[in-house]
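During the first year of the project, the team set up a workflow for recording each protein of interest as an amino acid sequence followed immediately by a discrete structure-token representation. This format lets reviewers and collaborators read both layers of information side by side without switching files. As required by the reporting guidelines, we include two representative entries from the current panel. The first entry is reproduced here exactly as it appears in our internal archive.
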Amino acid sequence: MSKEPNRKLAAVMAEAGASNKGLAKRVREVAQRHGEHLGTTHVAVQRWLDGSGIQRQTAVFVAEALSAKLRRRVAPQDLGFPGAAPAPTPAVGMGYAGSLAETLSALDGLTHQRPEDGPSDEPQLPNVDVHAAVLSWLVARPEGVPTDVPAARRVGMRDVAAIWTAAGFFMQLDFQFGGGHAHKAFRHYFREDVLPLLGCSYSAKVGEALFQAATEMSQLLAWTAYDSGNHALADRYMLSTLRLTQVAGDRMMGARILANMSHQANYLGQAPRALMLARASVEGGKAGSTPRAMALFSAHEARALSTAQDHKGAARAMSEAERFFERADSADDPEWLSYMDEAELIGEFCHCFRDLGQGAEAVRFAERAVELTNPKYARTLGFCRMVLAQSQLLNGDLDAAVTTAGLAVEAGDALESARFQRYVGDFQREVSAYGTHPAVQQFSGQVRDAMNRLDDE
């Protein structure tokens, strides 16, 4: 039986202006970037055009090569290669992408991974890769959105507005229930409804707005992976999202991503990494960020310095954050920054005083944070209550600490968050020395009951 020619591949090659030899060369280069060696020649390309089969991984490399040439995302299925594997996502060492096409390919591959699939102890990106990415971002110039792409669909501001509406919906789900609750829906929407638009046709104004909206969705995926406890996956999302900010030159969003990476490193006790990322956020963001954003970035520097037990440095960074926040209403902020209010700043500071061992100040700030936090931010309120409980314990008030922690657990809305569960676990270890105390025993029972209810739900 004669084979059917692969007309889909032929059509995309014609659109890209790629010859057999040219495509073969590009495929070899893509494979090499992913640590693979392929001996693809023009003869192999002709066989594919004639309808011969192709290895699943090779099909992925062909799609990435043509994506880079066309400056839009091309999937293996678009080339007549059904059933090909998603783009490879190396376990370690995925560095700062060299092109937009590589970035989109990486993000597409990441959306095929569920946070619960990978072991929680999978290695994060090594420091050398993170340092190289930060330096690349700091010295990068805006690429400009690709407005000269031939495509059948024209993207307009209505499409961009739809993405922002979806981002707001997903962010509220994340605040209310934690990252594990909506990650599947995030991934599907981003892969099927957002990434394809980046390869369409649009004006410069629409393109800039589109990339800003796509970046917001991408950072939400990063944050929810982090909140779910898959730090390796969160790392890779954040690095790709940082690269995405380079297209439109959105320095404030890029600095936000670095601050998020610092937040994660600080949570994991990686003080040097957290401090480097926070300072890169402050330095990289100051030329194009609002005072409210700079208050956020400086607060993360204070958090990292507190973890490092640098009392003087932490006090300086907190003072800088306060000074920036005093001018917060002097500029128009992007919508994504609306959560950065007084409650958020006070909440960051109560973490600082707790980590510095300053019990009285920690209690004062944590009480204020609990008072100010909007109940719709259930997870944030849960964190503030747990920090208040730890601070009360630090201050020698066991009964108050256990009562406060009990309120946080009983609310239950934050329990989907792996980070919140970690806060509860840390507190349980801290009060374990008082294990025979009736209040501590009652709290342990509360935690067991709450986790059982979570399993039932």
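The second entry, processed by the same pipeline in the following quarter, appears below.
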Amino acid sequence: MAKKTVKFVCQNCGYESPKWMGKCPQCSQWNQMVEEAETPKRRGFFLHPEPGNETKAAPITSIESKEEKRTKVDFGELNRVLGGGIVAGSLVLIGGDPGIGKSTLLLQVSSQLAKHGLNVLYISGEESAKQTKLRADRLNIHTDHLYVLPETDLSVIQQAIDELNPGFVVIDSIQTIYHPEIQSAPGSVSQVRETTAQLMRTAKTKNVAIFIVGHVTKEGSIAGPRVLEHMVDTVLYFEGERHNAYRILRAVKNRFGSTNEIAILEMKESGLEEVQNPSEIFLEERTKGAAGSTVVASIEGTRPVLVEIQALLAPTFFNMPRRMASGIDYNRVTLIMAVLEKRAGLLIQNQDAYLKVAGGLKVDEPAVDLAVAVSVASSFRDKPTNADDCIIGEVGLTGEVRRVSRIEQRVQEAAKLGFRRAIIPKNNMGGWTPPKEIQVIGVSTIQEALEAALGG
């Protein structure tokens, strides 16, 4: 009898070792090495096999390019995030915190596709068929083209896909599916890698769109090996607070469209509903005439979104003042506060500082720098900002205000929502015509911006 060989695999990054180690040498995580049985290497597969034809190198000019066939759903926001609809033969990974609404979203999308005459197969590895039916009843889903299969064995799932030949498949979730030829437990690195590879082959060979749900770790990334995100065509993150009604669907990878596109959805008793104008949602509860509040036009994917930046400064009682930021990078906040102290003469080293992006949105582009600086200065001086101002610009370490991209779209979005003034970098002033209903003020330094926004 052949000796059984084993290996130890890191459940965080997929690193393999012939012996157990307490700390993974690749990702530096502790207690992540799990024993798994060695499986024989199998021959790879072609993603687009054609019987009788061998794959050969060809000049790129001789390859025929054509538009991918897309299927649109009733959620216009989801169509935009995916680049114009669901591409046939694509493999889409969607991740999010437990209870955020991933299963609800995909069940609603499945229903919309089924109503258009497509056969949809919903694989539930975490719930029974009755539990899925209860959710469908709550969402008022009643269609004969939606099939539910509570199964975790990949071979049974593959057989069901072959028999039904659906146009759309949902796997909920990938961590519960296991390949019968792999000895390790479901959810392990080997299982996730092999099952995803098999599903990718099915999607490409049968030209069927497959959505797979992935669990996330406490750090917010997809659980399992990083190769999982590299294998799929699109990666979507479903974000939001569980106690907040609004959800953000963000594309972080998309081979068929733009990345960093976002869709705003609202969770209601009847399911998720799309928000047509997210800027109004983020600004509807804004208090006018409040110190420490500014509005910035941030670009999310291909469209501008107006969000409110809030800052609160208070004298500290500690040797080291506290700095906290929600929805914006902490390092960016500390950098801007250092620039304010050095270049604008604000003595804020003895102040606790708390910054927040209202509405739960996360912004990470440089164009929000100037709005953060004005918010901090407004709270420190206890001087309210003008409620009709929109502030846009990147701040450099020498106190200069640098140009940002797509300024015309940002200013037009501000004008559309009734803002009367836009404070922007002076280098962005030329080459375009601002709307007549908004006054555009160009500034070149952070001192000029504070003068324009706060009067000094």
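For the second entry, the following points were noted during internal review. The chain has eleven helices and 23 strands. Residues 6-37 form one domain. Both points are flagged for discussion at the upcoming steering committee meeting.
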